[in-house]
Amino acid sequence: MHEWLLFYLEFLNAVNNLLKGYLGSIIFADKGNDNLFSTREYGIILWLSIIIIFALFKNGKQIGLSLLIAYLFLIVYLLFYLKIMELEMIKDYVIWISSAFFPAMYKVVIHRNVSIFKMFKDLFKFSIFYMFIISEYTFNFWLESIIIVPISFILILISSFIDIENKAEYKQLKKVINVLLALLGFIILYYAMISFIGSIKDVEKIIFWKKLFFEIIIFCLHIPILYFSQIVSVTEQIILKTNLIWDSKKKKKAMILLLLKSRFKKERLNDFYEIILANNRVNNMRELKELINN
What we know:
mainly alpha; 13 helices; 2 domains
């Protein structure tokens, strides 16, 4: 995976953490209309589109891209078939894919010990209701798109860069950014609640409650692909510790062997990883079989 993609996913991961933390989503405004998109969503879609288009124009090997797209289309079909999602909720799904699913993919692929179940529990760490209210009631389009979203993205980008570099000289700057984001978060929550109270009749609409629990439902539906991505990633990390990595045919055979022997269990694959790491480098399939069978 190329550095630009890793940084892009790290950036989206930081955005997602911000959405789930004290900021929630990026700013406030009038919700007293029936527009398909809120002004914040227009702003976020605009800037995420710019980032994604830039990323797509980079050269990189798209492993399993067709399978991923097919699975996502299947999820959308299932959501419509079960009448969980309506047309006006498609944009919520697109935003969730960009700002939550991709960062989740980053976590499970890069960090082999990350628990998907814990990620699901983290959805309840902060009040779902308050996070939903914050994301629904936004400022006007120009303030969101030209000032709020770009400034917030820049702050998040700098924060993400600091986390990656992990240098002591950046710690003070990190604290300043955290204070700015926290202050922005409190302002957002205050005004979002005022806007919600002014539109209290929204709670009488079924779509209000569908949107409220939408993220929990779609996360559950995406657990299989997250889990599959994680065990494949762990398997590749194991093979990277062997000399089988240089032979594509042996690499594929080793991956199949490891997945079957582990019975597709992440914990078992992690055990294999530690065994391979503790021994001398594996040179052939026979040595690999001996190690994982013992």
